[in-house]
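#struct-help
A.M.: can someone run this one for me? Single chain, 116 residues.
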Amino acid sequence: MEGSFLRFYVTESEAHHGVLLWEWLLIQGNRLGIRGGSAFRAIGGFGRRHTLHEDRFFELAGSSGIEVEFVATDEEEQRLFDLINREQIRVFYTRIPARFGVINPDAEDPPATDNP
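D.P.: on it. Structure tokens below:
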């Protein structure tokens, strides 16, 4: 299958409608039919303000970065982007074209368009 590898960068404490943003993104991706998503806590990093954040000190709790990843078809990606736009969420993301599939699929997997 053809689509994209999407990665959203949020802070640990960012929320939307009372739900942590990383969790909200996963819930919405699942609701929109994206086959899978993951969230990962960063141990360190910096953003556009060039402030280094490290996951070491209690006084910095909530400032760590979270990466939320999806592998999605073009249609799934568009539904997610449309929702994020409607909700007026400001979020940085990366999008990388991807080819993906399941080797030895079972009946619950979508049909393959090519074989490895």
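A.M.: thanks! The chain has a mean pLDDT of 87.
D.P.: also worth noting: Helices lie at 21-31, 74-86.
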